[in-house]
Amino acid sequence: MTTKTNPGRFFEDYRVGEVIRHAVPRTIAEGERALYHALYPARGALYSSDMFAADCGLEGSPLDDLIVFHTVFGKTVPDISLNAVANLGYAEGRWLKPVYAGDTLRAESEVIGLRPNSNGTSGVVWVRTTGYDQTDQPVLSYVRWVMVRKRDNAAPACETVVPDLAAVVDPGALVIPEGLSFEGYDFTLAGEPHRWGDYAVGEVIDHVDAVTVEEAEHMLATRLWQNTAKVHFDATFREDGRRLIYGGHVISLARALSFNGLANAQMIVALNGGAHANPCFAGDTVRAWSEVLDRAETSVPGVGALRLRLVAHKGAPGDNTLKGADGKYAPHVLLDLDYWALIPQ
Amino acid sequence: MTTKTNPGRFFEDYRVGEVIRHAVPRTIAEGERALYHALYPARGALYSSDMFAADCGLEGSPLDDLIVFHTVFGKTVPDISLNAVANLGYAEGRWLKPVYAGDTLRAESEVIGLRPNSNGTSGVVWVRTTGYDQTDQPVLSYVRWVMVRKRDNAAPACETVVPDLAAVVDPGALVIPEGLSFEGYDFTLAGEPHRWGDYAVGEVIDHVDAVTVEEAEHMLATRLWQNTAKVHFDATFREDGRRLIYGGHVISLARALSFNGLANAQMIVALNGGAHANPCFAGDTVRAWSEVLDRAETSVPGVGALRLRLVAHKGAPGDNTLKGADGKYAPHVLLDLDYWALIPQ
Amino acid sequence: MTTKTNPGRFFEDYRVGEVIRHAVPRTIAEGERALYHALYPARGALYSSDMFAADCGLEGSPLDDLIVFHTVFGKTVPDISLNAVANLGYAEGRWLKPVYAGDTLRAESEVIGLRPNSNGTSGVVWVRTTGYDQTDQPVLSYVRWVMVRKRDNAAPACETVVPDLAAVVDPGALVIPEGLSFEGYDFTLAGEPHRWGDYAVGEVIDHVDAVTVEEAEHMLATRLWQNTAKVHFDATFREDGRRLIYGGHVISLARALSFNGLANAQMIVALNGGAHANPCFAGDTVRAWSEVLDRAETSVPGVGALRLRLVAHKGAPGDNTLKGADGKYAPHVLLDLDYWALIPQ
After folding, report:
1. In a domain, B137, yes or no
2. pLDDT at residue number C1
């Protein structure tokens, strides 16, 4: 038997400064859009109606921001995280241009940091990944870091380079899509009356709804993003016989649930950070709550930005415990995401 | 924790004559169409092939009539049935214009009736809901009535207004899509030879096929219509830990199964009434039978109308019991639907 | 109760030379394409990206070759295999023209062979099925033979006609899509560096990945191809209460898994043969391996052909046993498929 298959990269295969062009560009169209709405209870009017989007100055309803994120992320998996032990964090994520049905995305990652672990069996790899459309314009850029196994524990330790990353994307750096305007925004059609000024820093919103997750759903989703990590698909792979749900599935579920209370926080424009606090499995009932972390003006009059913490959990309704006394995430918490969204002022 | 979330309307929040504009308009395209065909064994040639539809005088294959129904219905849920105890009935439903991929739908409901229950804890609300396309032309109109809880049992009882509803849509009021013609209708491609004249009033057709329903399927479908009632998604919501399947899922399943025997009953043009007789849960095996209730000519030569009772059940193959001696639906009956369909003469 | 439903054809209903026009033509578009990528871990760059396909001389990314196969196959089920006891084999399959989103497919089958079984209760039917697009150009042709029950065991035996079928499609008969060129082929974007010349006859490739199958997935897929055989949908139909997974679902799963090692074997152009060795059920974890059976030049410089055996199984990782000492398929083998694919030289 020959090995023409991809074993994935190991820690010692990365070099700081190296740029990896990821495989399998992908044209995303109406079908992916419909599947997104079947897989997640997404109801943001800007992503549901061409007419609502046109009334907001866009050429039509863009593909959901997280479709772009998952597609770009999925491209990176065979090169970055096939041998990853853990997905450690995100930073400096910015959506740079709306993506529409028919656009073709590809991705590249630059290795921007490496730190061997003291146990000699693994290390941390930082990459800055950029997604490009068919005109080679960047549509999304973010930093992700993962712990990756070494192929050979005897391989010499590389020099440690830890990138200097912003704790939060500066509101001045948020990219407002060209033409976006909330002047003619119809709050009734959008589903809620709450504007930028109605949200107070520190305010916590319980999103009320819940979804019990099925195996078929998370596998359909993860395949759609061409994410091939076998832990999501092969029930014989983990010792407990359970398939781990792709962390991005939980992000999309929680974001969609947050419509109820944040219906007007229409566009995700930055990802400040995020932690997949505990694994999610089929059968879990996922709930979500949000905390308003900050508010900012943007370069466009009438368009405000909210910095939001989005927490997904599998605990009881209304349980908004985040961490225990030890500073660790409570065992029912699945996701702690920090992002900027655009909302009418 | 703040409550920016939508608690839904309660019985005392409705006023006769009030018009509710529902949130989240939706552009429906090729993706929703494909998902419909993946979720239901739909095979009507007019809804499967652009060429077949063109040969029938239409601009292309319209979206399935029930996609339009589910989408419009889904829009109403947050305003009408979030606090509903029961979905009691439908009447005077008419499809007014075919909907094509790329159209954008929104919905409005007028409250046309209110009746407080004598127990003082709930009441019946009648609404006439209309779906509109992007040109503000109506595409579907129907009456639905639901039993809704009161927020405050001490709230004063309103005046009772019970609308006068037609038992059956008059065949003269059926809207035949502009251009529709069955002159060049290809019965071989359609799948069956049976014409309007081949069906006798009183005739019962067992549709033979059956589908065992999975959780992932009904949740994908219900999300696709942006129907957010938590009883369909949250396995912790009901005491028995079971997710109730959206009644419309059963309608679409039964209608698709009815292809086998009614392949030429192509277009649904009216909904005379309907009852969700018993709840449906994942694991149930759904079967269907139809009864020809009436036949009518239409304004277009060659286009006939059949009034059909469509029954979905989870009983044994061939069991066409509808009601018991007590006049109540047999426990295996899920759906009793009464509609008009167009068929070549 | 009347029987307007289709009981399917029985063995004595077929005549050699007869041509059957199958029902329900189907327009396939972006939605079916997206669902294919959600249902199978398909990553062939030519079928993922319009730009990659354009760089290979095509007008855009065609629909996956197996979408065409499943759609055409699905059309034949009500006429050919509704009363089939077994799907016995395939031969002389050729893809004749790429199919694009928006094309409408229909199918015809010519009965080319009949052989009554000696037990008098069934017989073998050979059909050559051709799929046509909206311009009546053939897009796919293949021979399939099935064992079909007799309606009446006393029906007289017909004359035996066994067609003379090629064991392998001659490489000279492979149809290379008009304009196809691998001159500007980007191996990095395609995902692997291996060319035609890198594969040796006899080489075996274990595709490493695995997928545990869910009921909802195979039913969504099978419905999408409008395949109505009840054994796939009705859990009460078989005595063991299990739904048999459509054999084509296993073909697509295995083909998609074979990306890992055969990423550049982009286009399926011929089906030499195939056996559904054992049934597949939900819960099975499907793996795949391939064997290079032959290599051939084609009429287009730079475009080579590989003849591949694709085996799907539900055994342990790396188990590439095909048959036992008795010459029968090992019990864990699900599929043994023999096809030609195009690959850059």
Report:
1. yes
2. 53
Return the closest-CA partner of residue B45 out of B180, B254, B191.
B191
Binning pLDDT at 50, 70 and 90, where does residue B1 land? Answer: low
The verdict on C220 touching B (C-beta cutoff 8 Å) is yes
Q: CB B24 to CB A261 under 8 A?
A: no
**pLDDT tens digits along A56-65:** 999 999 999 9
Ranges A153-157, B11-15, B163-167, C33-37: which has the least confidence:
A153-157
Ranges B219-223, C19-23, C151-155: which has the least confidence: C151-155
* Interface contact B5-A261, CB threshold 8 A: yes
C216 CB neighbours in chain B (<8 A) are 214-217, 220
Per-residue confidence at A2, pLDDT binned at 50, 70, 90? low
Distance CA A216, CA A225 (A): 15
- Nearest residue on chain A to B224, judged by CA atoms? A38
Residues of B in contact with C224 (CB under 8 A): 34, 37-38
Strand residues in chain B grouped as ranges (E)? 19-21, 26-27, 84-95, 104-116, 122-132, 138-149, 204-212, 267-276, 285-297, 303-313, 333-344
Task: Decide: helix, strand or coil at residue C247.
Answer: helix
Q: Where are the alpha helices (DSSP H) in chain C?
A: 30-39, 50-55, 65-80, 187-190, 215-224, 247-257, 259-262
What residue of B is the nearest CA neighbor of A32? B31
Q: CA nearest C275: which of C307, C245, C311?
A: C311
Q: Is residue B5 part of a domain?
A: no
CB contact under 8 A, B285 and C235: yes
Number of domains, chain C: 1
Domain membership of residue A43 as a residue range = 11-157+166-344
A39: Cβ–Cβ under 8 A, 6 or more apart, which residues? A217, A220, A221, A224, A252, B220, B223
- pLDDT exceeds cutoff 70 at C67: yes
Residue C39 has its nearest CB partner, among A3, A220, A233, at: A220
Q: Which of residues 277-296 of C touch B (CB under 8 A)?
A: none
Structural tokens at position C40:
């199978």
Residue A219 at interface with chain B, using a CB cutoff of 8 Å: no
Q: What gap in Å lies between CA B68 and CA B62, rounded to an integer?
A: 10
Asked if residue A245 lies in contact with residue A282, where contact means CB atoms within 8 angstroms, the answer is: yes
Contacts of C26 in chain B (CB under 8 A): 48-49
Domain of residue B216, CATH code: 3.10.129.10
Encoded amino acid at B291, one letter:
E
User: Is the complex ipTM higher than 0.85?
Assistant: yes
Closest chain A CA to residue B106 = A189
Touching partners of B (3+ C-beta pairs < 8 Å): A, C
Q: Which two tokens stand for residue B128?
A: 């006439």
- In a domain? residue C197: yes
Q: How confident is the model at residue A344 (pLDDT cuts 50, 70, 90)?
A: very high
Q: Does B201 touch chain C (CB under 8 A)?
A: no
Asked if residue A76 is part of any domain, the answer here is yes
Average pLDDT over residues C200-222: 97
For residues B153, B154, B157, B163, the Cα torsion angle rounded to the nearest 10 degrees is -20
Contacts of B192 in chain C (CB under 8 A): 4, 6, 23
- Residues of chain C with pLDDT > 90: what percent? 93
Q: With an 8 Å Cβ cutoff, are C209 and A234 in contact? A: yes
| Contact present, C269 and C174 (Cβ < 8 Å) | yes
For residues A210-235, one letter each, b for 16 or more C-beta atoms within 10 angstroms of the residue's C-beta and e for the rest, the string is: bbbbbbbbbbbbbbbbbbbbbebbbb
Closest Cα in chain C to B30: C31
State the Cα angle at C220 between A47 and C126, rounded to 5°. 140
What is the rounded CA–CA span in Å between residue B21 and residue B108?
Answer: 5
By Cβ distance, the residue of B2, B104, B224 closest to A49 is B104
Q: Is the pTM higher than 0.95?
A: yes
Least Cα separation, residue C85 to chain B (angstroms)? 18
